[in-house]
Amino acid sequence: MDRLRAMSRSPYGPEPPRRSLLVEGIVRIARSGRGSGSRTPHLFGGDDREKVSWEYGQGKVFFDSISPHAGIGLLEGKEVLDAGCGWGGKAIWYARTSRLASIAGFDLPGVYDPEVSRSFARELGVLNCTFDTGVAERMPYPDARFDLVLMEDVLEHVSDPGAVLEECARVLRPGGLAVLKFPSFRMMYAHHLDRALRLPALHYLLPMRTWAAGLNHLLLASGGTLGYEPFDEVGPAPFHPAITRNLNGLHFSSFREIVGASPFKIEVLELIPFRGDVGKRSLRRSLYGILYRVGPLREFLSEFVLFIGRKRGSASGKEDAG
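^ that's the sequence the OP posted. Answer follows.
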């Protein structure tokens, strides 16, 4: 366990290693084909500056993925919060590319170093960015500070999604927008085992404890040469009985209930289908389109949940209709 902890930057302890012949077999098959893990500086030991730079290069992906529901023009003239900003690279890209007034970003203390983001922004001459540390359930900003909150791939990690929506509303001005996307744990790529295996539906094939323990065993057996960080310990979460500690198991129906009790008026709440790999070949694209029309399969076959909500009330204090 000490060896696993030394390899990890997670605030949680690793799952105790345990050999699994099934996990070993699947990993062997995956590494002989195209199913080996994703490689980003976040997952394979890059330094902090590499993480910011990589995110900056991915800056356009967020708004590309949520079009036609929203585009980067949404930022124009706005004071923006990037809640759970990763390493701040995307926030810096937004500031440099759009006509926003200002943007602030924060992420977890003890994991995120905001000075690295500040330094990268200064190097690019971007002066309307600020960065801090904090947690999404208690955002480090005063009431009514922002016009717009962005949150990408964060809600599946937080301990209390309802409290996060309340915080989004608190830091927004009346009538402000929250634009959130996250993968439901019921989706085929939502297992967050990507750094070891880029294959769909792994969490349907074996329990998460088996995956975390088996992959940690393989990592130790390789002497760390497999390259991925250890997987967190598995336990009960708000929306799942046994899942790695960095996840909460949130899915679409639970989130819809949370939104219904939140201070937001729904403008968009949808499952968003894949537009990438499944669309590269006409036969595969056609089959995917047919299957996606089958109601019980839709969440599994989607890429993420998109929520755009407007804080109830207006600048004059009057409640929005609806």
